[in-house]
Design goal:
The protein has 688 residues and is of the alpha/beta class. Among the domains are: 5-172, PAS domain (Beta-Lactamase); 370-529, 2-Layer Sandwich (Heat Shock Protein 90), CATH 3.30.565; 551-687, Response regulator (Rossmann fold, 3-Layer(aba) Sandwich). 57% of the residues lie in helices and 17% in strands. It has 17 helices and 18 strands. It has helices spanning 4-75, 79-91, 125-132, 168-233, 248-329, 334-364, 377-395, 415-431, 467-472, 484-487, 494-504, 551-554, 567-579, 590-599, 616-630, 647-653, 666-676, and strands at residues 95-101, 106-109, 120-121, 137-141, 144-153, 156-166, 373-376, 397-403, 410-413, 436-448, 451-459, 509-513, 519-529, 559-563, 583-587, 604-608, 636-640, 658-661. The strands form three sheets. Strands 7, 8, 9, 10, 11, 12 and 13 form a seven-stranded mixed beta sheet that branches. Strands 3-2-1-6-5-4 form a six-stranded antiparallel beta sheet, sandwiched between helices. α15 links the parallel β16 and β17 (636-640). α1 (4-75) packs antiparallel against α4 (168-233), α5 packs antiparallel against α6 and α5 crosses α13. The longest helix has 82 residues, at 248-329. It starts with a helix and ends in a 12-residue tail after the last helix. The relative contact order is 0.06. The structure holds adenosine-5'-diphosphate.
């Protein structure tokens, strides 16, 4: 219902007025009625009293007269006169009966007939009282007024007279009067009612009009206020509204104005702030975008730099290490052998440092991802331990290891990185332990479904670590004692790399040690238990090779295409292959390699990736295209100075069969070749 307030207001006022009028009218009417009624009754009663009195007086007078007149004839026993007096009495108006009686109540005459009666007695109650009365007695019964009086002669009662006056006329007259009174009362009441009705109608009409105007006076400004509030609600603040009233509504309108004004101001301030904020956000976003782009560019430059550095350092290192290996194989005189062995050792040391720095930079740039490949835990640990067996024996240190029986062997994960952590820890243990034992242990920490948390520990009996230094030991470039770096070689990166690798494996690393009492390095790693999937291709975990396989072990001579732009590397790889009895064709870039492959068939291709004119990936693609017609598949092994994780996957995806990272060892090279051509060049496998 719209604007029901007004309707309700009118209805309320109307109801109040109506109620008041009805109540007043009712009270008025009831009072009027009772007043008229009492007045009427009073008048009737009064006039009845009056008439009765008149009748009584008249009766008494007449009976008195009769008694006087009857005294003489009665004392003389003149019954004839008595009878005449009775006859004349009966003729009087309203006289109904007449009786003269003896003191004993015997009726002497009743004015009827021709003469006196005798022997008739008065027997009813009224008569008995009349006979007994000593003075005038008036008795009213059955519309008859009985007036009796004793008759005295010389103070002796000689009898009594009794006259009955009919009251019928009086009663009729009374009735007439009462009815006329009633008629008058009714007429008066009707008059009063009419007046009441007219007055009520007037009051109600005035009430309605009053209510209507009052309601309008109340609800119209409320409606206006509502309309105003609606406009404010819709955000229209430009519009002012004021009720010229001194009452609460006027106050409300002024308050609303004030409110609208304040909201408007606040709104404006808010809008300004918002605009400013938006502008700032835009500015900041732009700045951030610029900074981000810059950072990304810097990061890209850093990655490129890392890749290039890796390539640039590894390539000459490849030459140094390769040539040293070849020179050592050429049976040099003992003195030269010693020099060459020193060169080889230094080269490996340098390579480790370079690898550490590259690893650390990669981790810092979030470039390092862990591989997810199937591996055997015990074999991984055993291989890692084996790397140190020579060194440990040299120092006279016992090196032992164990894996708890409850730990399964097949896992999915990055065995290379796991063994890198162990290599670091075992390497440090050997480095800082002059004598005693080094133990490597793997225990179950926790397992759920296919997840397995293995707790590794490497303990030694070495110089130990001071508590102060234990705090910062896993930070980069930190070494316990500045003098260490001279006494013990190292970059202070090893443990920092371990810590980051461990956190990539969702594990934790910590140390327990006391100065001079050895150290125990702990770390946990979350490994996934391997399912039923087939084992992955064997990981190229760096393995120390002390013995060089002989020609016989390598199988028959192979035709190998070597695509390599770097002269030193051409020499190294070429010589290594030739030493193993293979025939080598060299291509200086990808394009030449593709051309050579088109000219003649090869058993295997060693493909450098970074080459001018056409890189290794493109060349591989072209070779694979050539092979499409023949259905042949020649193994192509990438040679790369990149040691980035995921590189192997990339190589496989781009049509290569495997990859070898530079600098390479003769043993690794031969192993890779044997892996891809196990049956030699003439086996049917090759043309599969
Ligand atoms: P570095 O390559 O210099 O050894 P690490 O990060 O591997 O760098 O080790 C940092 C330092 O922590 C070492 O220089 C050495 O002071 C201390 N440290 C590491 N392992 C041990 C250990 N097993 N016993 C005593 N000190 C150790």
């Amino acid at each position: 219902m719209k604007y029901s307030l007004q309707h309700r207001y009118i209805a309320t006022v109307f109801a109040l007025v109506l109620g008041a009028v009805l109540a007043l009218g009712g009270v008025f009417f009831i009072t009027l009625r009772s007043v008229t009624r009492s007045i009427t009754h009073q008048s009737i009663d009064t006039s009845r009293e009056l008439m009765l009195d008149q009748l009584r007086d008249r009766g008494a007078l007449m009976v008195n007269l009769l008694a006087d007149n009857l005294a003489a004839p009665l004392s003389h026993a003149d019954l004839k006169t008595v009878h005449q007096l009775g006859v004349s009495a009966l003729k009087q108006q309203n006289v109904q009966y007449f009786q003269v009686f003896t003191p004993t109540g015997e009726i002497l005459d009743n004015g009827l007939g021709n003469g006196p009666l005798s022997g008739k007695r008065l027997t009813d109650r009224v008569s008995e009282q009349a006979v007994a009365a000593n003075a005038t007695l008036v008795q009213i019964e059955n519309e008859v007024m009985d007036v009796s009086m004793p008759i005295f002669v010389n103070n002796t009662r000689i009898g009594g007279v009794r006259v009955g006056f009919s009251m019928k006329e009086l009663n009729r007259e009374m009735e007439e009067r009462i009815s006329s009174f009633h008629d008058l009362g009714h007429a008066k009441r009707d008059e009063a009612l009419t007046m009441l009705f007219v007055l009520s109608a007037c009051f109600i009409t005035i009430g309605i009009i009053l209510a209507y105007f009052l309601a309008r006076n109340m609800s119209n400004p409320v409606l206006e206020l509502a309309h105003y509030a609606q406009r404010i609600g819709q955000g229209d603040f430009g519009f002012r509204f004021s009720l010229k009233r001194k009452d609460e509504l006027g106050l409300l309108s002024r308050t609303m104005n004030e409110m609208a004004l304040q909201i408007n101001e606040k709104n404006k301030a808010l809008l300004d702030a918002h605009t400013l904020l938006e502008k700032r956000v835009v500015d900041r976003t732009r700045e951030l975008m610029l900074a981000k782009n810059k950072a990304e560019a810097a990061n890209r430059a850093k990655s490129n730099f890392l890749a290039n550095m890796s390539h640039e350092i590894r390539t000459p290192m490849n030459g140094v290490i390769g040539m040293t290996q070849l020179a050592l194989l050429a049976s040099p005189p003992p003195e030269q052998r010693e020099y060459l062995e020193l060169i080889e050792k230094s080269s490996y040391r340098l390579l480790t440092v370079v690898n550490d720095i590259l690893d650390f930079s990669k981790i810092e740039a979030n470039k390092l991802e862990l591989a997810r490949e199937r591996f055997a835990l015990r074999e991984t640990i055993a291989t890692t331990i084996r790397e140190f067996s020579f060194k440990a024996k040299e120092k006279g240190i016992a090196l032992e290891w164990s894996v708890a029986d409850e730990i399964p062997d097949d896992f999915m994960g990055d065995a290379g990185r796991l063994s890198q952590i162990l290599i670091n820890l075992i390497g440090n243990a050997i480095k800082f332990t002059p004598a005693g034992t080094i133990s490597v242990r793997a225990e179950k920490e926790y397992t759920e479904l296919d997840e397995f948390v293995v707790h590794f520990s490497v303990s030694d009996t070495g110089i130990g670590i001071s508590p102060e230094y234990q705090v910062s030991i896993f930070e980069a470039f930190s070494q316990a004692d500045e003098s260490h770096s001279r006494q013990y070689e190292g970059t202070g990166l090893g443990l920092a790399i371990c810590a980051r690798l461990v956190s990539l494996m969702n594990g934790q690393i910590w140390v327990e040690s006391a100065e001079g009492q050895g150290a125990v390095f702990h770390f946990t790693a979350l490994l996934k238990k391997a399912g039923d999937e087939p084992p992955a291709l064997e990981e190229d975990v760096t393995q120390p090779q002390s013995t060089e396989p002989t020609q016989d072990q390598l199988g028959p001579q192979l035709e190998i295409l070597l695509a390599e732009d770097n002269l030193v590397n051409q020499k190294v790889a070429g010589k290594m292959l030739e030493r193993s009895g293979h025939k080598v064709t060299i291509a200086v870039n990808g394009q030449e390699a593709v051309a050579a492959f088109a000219r003649q068939p090869f058993d295997l291709v060693l493909m450098d990736i970074q080459m001018p004119v056409m890189d290794g990936f493109e060349a591989t693609q072209a070779i694979r295209d050539q092979e499409k017609d023949s259905g042949k598949h020649t193994p192509i092994i990438a040679l790369t100075a990149h040691a980035i994780s995921g590189y192997r996957e990339k190589c496989l995806a781009l049509g290569l069969d495997d990859y070898l990272s530079k600098p390479m060892k003769i043993a690794d090279l031969n192993a890779k070749i044997a892996e891809h051509l196990p049956q030699g060049p003439d086996s049917p496998e090759k043309t599969a």
